[in-house]
């Protein structure tokens, strides 16, 4: 029987989230799992591996929720993802590199990166949109608003 790699990472993330104070735990569950679903959908639409995209989304804010500190959280979450992914022994070094690179790049919404970087950036934007109106996205995440508009067009929403 083949191991479901996404489920393994979901379990790791749930264990981390379950250790957090209520407010941070709730926010983490909502945002991370919405981003996971959005990443898989975006990857499917773009002909990319949905599993790699979903795993990246699950870990993209790992350090931010773990520590409660958003400063440089993309790089810190990428660094935190490396031992998690390696310890599972379920991912190739190349896959770990793709996932960690996408996580590290997800806060840079203005620049275009590699395909999985873009999936993760867009999944993050959609996850925030699901919680807020378009006006709130524009106000609170001005760098991400143009991405949001492009996603609306891409997905006819």
> Could you tell me the mean pLDDT?
92
At CATH level 3, the topology is Hypothetical protein af1432
Give the radius of gyration: 15 Å
CATH class: Mainly Alpha
Q: What name goes with the CATH superfamily?
A: Hypothetical protein af1432
How far from one another are the termini?
A: 38 Å
Main pleated sheet: none
Oligomer: single chain
**What's the domain count?**
1
Q: Which band does the percent of strand residues land in?
A: under 5%
Overall 3D form: globular
Descriptive account of the structure:
The chain is mainly α and 157 residues long. The protein has a single domain, classed as Hypothetical protein af1432 (Orthogonal Bundle), CATH 1.10.3210. The chain is 76% helix and 0% strand. The protein has nine helices and no strands. Helix 2 packs across helix 7. It is globular, with a radius of gyration of 15 Å. The mean pLDDT is 92.
Briefly summarize what is shown.
This protein is an all-alpha fold and 157 residues long.
Secondary structure topology:
Blueprint: H1 5-18, H2 22-45, H3 50-59, H4 62-67, H5 73-88, H6 93-105, H7 115-131, H8 134-140, H9 142-154
Helix pairs in contact: 1-3, 2-3, 2-7, 3-6, 3-7, 5-6, 6-7, 7-9, 8-9
Task: Name a few traits of the molecule.
single chain, mainly alpha, Hypothetical protein af1432, globular
């Amino acid at each position: 029987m083949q191991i479901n790699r996404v489920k393994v990472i979901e379990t790791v993330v749930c264990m981390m989230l379950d250790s957090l104070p209520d407010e941070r735990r709730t926010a983490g569950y909502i945002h991370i799992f919405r981003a996971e679903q959005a990443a898989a959908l975006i990857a499917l639409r773009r002909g990319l591996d949905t599993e790699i995209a979903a795993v990246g989304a699950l870990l993209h804010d790992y350090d931010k929720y773990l520590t409660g500190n958003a400063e440089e959280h993309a790089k810190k979450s990428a660094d935190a993802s490396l031992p998690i992914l390696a310890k599972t022994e379920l991912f190739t070094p190349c896959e770990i590199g793709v996932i960690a690179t996408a996580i590290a790049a997800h806060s840079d919404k203005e620049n275009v990166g590699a395909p999985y970087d873009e999936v993760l950036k867009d999944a993050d934007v959609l996850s925030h949109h699901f919680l807020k109106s378009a006006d709130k996205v524009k106000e609170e995440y001005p760098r991400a608003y143009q991405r949001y508009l492009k996603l609306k067009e891409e997905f006819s929403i």
